[in-house]
Amino acid sequence: MTETNTPTRAAARAMILPLALAQFIASYAATNMNVAISAIAQDLHTDVAGVQTAITLFTLTMAALMIPGSKLTDIWGRKRCFLLGLIVYGIGGLLAALSFGLGQLIVGYSLLEGVGSALMIPPIYILVTVIFPDVKSRARYFGVVSGAGGLGAAAGPLIGGVVTSAISWRASFGLQVLVVAWIILLARKIAYPEPTGARPRFDVTGAVLSAAGLFFVVLGMLQSRTYGFGKSREDFTIGGTVIIPKGSISPVWLYVAIGALFLLWFFLYTRSRERKGKDVLLPLRLFRNKTSNLGLGTQAIQWLVLQGSFFVISVYLQEVWKYNAIKTGLVLTPATFGILVASAGADRFARRHPQRWLIIAGFLVTAAGMALLLALVRADSGVWTWIPGLLLFGIGIGVMLTSSVNVVQSSFPESDQGEISGLSRSVSNLGSSLGTALVGSVMVAVKLPEGKPFAVALTVILVITVIGFVLAVLIPRQSAEEEMPVSPGPAPATSQPTS
Question: How many CB atoms within 10 Å of residue 246?
C-alpha cells in the first residue's frame, strides 16, 4: 500500500467517527456499572453479589470470545462483522434496560453485550490499520480511537453516576442503545472493499479451546478479589463441599492452572493443524515477531496500570474521602483530560518521534504522575493535590496507548490483521482484568493504618509501570513502518465514502 491510497481528510473523519464511538461505548460499558450496583440490586430484588456476577460475566464473555470474534472478520468481512457486533450489542443493551430480574440482565448485559463487543472491537483496529497504510496517518487515527477508549473508561463512572442519580440505571443502558443506533447509521459511510477470494474456514475446536483457556485465566484473576493471590482468605466450596480450606493456597491458581492447560491444549492442537496445512484460529507465527511480542507486553501493562490505578483511586476517594460517584468522577477529570490531549497529539508525535520512543516516554511520564500522587495526596490534603499527578498520568497513558497498538498492528500484513487484532484485544483485556484484581487483592491483604493499603497498591502499580518501561526499551529500534511487511491485499478506496 502507498500513501496515495489514503482517504481524503473528510473521508477519513467520516470513517473514523463510528469506530471511535464504538470503542468509547465498549469502554464505557466496562466501567459505568460499578457505580450502579446498589441501585440495580435493589430494583431487581437481588443482592450486590448477583450484580457483581453479571459484571464479571461480561468481562469473561468479552475476553473469551475476542480471538474467535476477530477471526470471523476474515470470514464474514470486517465491516459486516462490525455492524453485526453493534446490532447484537444494541439488542443486549435494550434487554438490560428492560430487565425485570437478574437473569434477563445477565442475558442482555453479560452475554449479548459481551458477544457484541467481541465482534465489533477487533474490526475497529483492523479497519484503521488497512485503511490508513502509512504509520504516521495511522497514528493520528489510532490516537482518536485510543482517546475515545480512554475517555469511555475514565468517564464511565462519572456519566454512569450522573445518569443513575438523575434518572435511573436503566437510562444508562438506554443511552448505550441510542449511541449504538447512531453508530450504525454513521457506519454506512465506511468505504472499505472486503477481501475477495476464498475465505478461511472457522476452526471451531480451536475457538472452544482458546475461549475456555482465556475464560478460566480471567476468572482466576477476578477471583483474587475474594480469595487473594497467596493464602485463601476463606473456604473455597463447590456444592457445599469445601475444596480448598481457608489458609491453604488460593483457588485463583486452580482456575489459572485449568486455563493454562486449555491454552496448552490449544497450542498443541494448532501446531498439529498447521503441520497438516489446515486453517487455524490463530497462526503460531504471530508469536515469533519480537517487536509485536514486546508491544503486546506493553499493551497488557498499560491497561493493567490504567484500570488498576482508576480502581484504587476510586475506592480511596469513596472510602477515605467519602466521595460519591459523581465527585469521584470529577476528581479523575485531569487524567481524562490528559488522555484526550495526548491522544489528539498522536499524529504530531508520530511525525517527530519513533513509536518506540513514544512508548518509553509514556511509561516515564506515567511513572512520574504516580510518584506525584504518592508524594502529594494524603487523607487530609486538598483536592488540588490530585491534579498534577493525574494530569501527568493521563498524558503518559494517552501517548503510549496509541503507539503500542500501532507497533503491534503494523508488524503484520493485511492478511494477518484479523488474527493479530483479536490477540491484541485479548491481551489488553487480560491486562485490564489483572489490574483491578491485583490492586483489589493488595488492598485487602495489607493490614496497615488508614490510607496505607491504597499507597501500597499504587506502589505495586508503579513497580509494574517500571517493568513496562523496560519492555519498551527492549523493542527494536527499527520503526514499525520499516518492519511492516508489504500486503498483497486490495487497497482501500480512494474516493469519498458512499452511504
Answer: 12
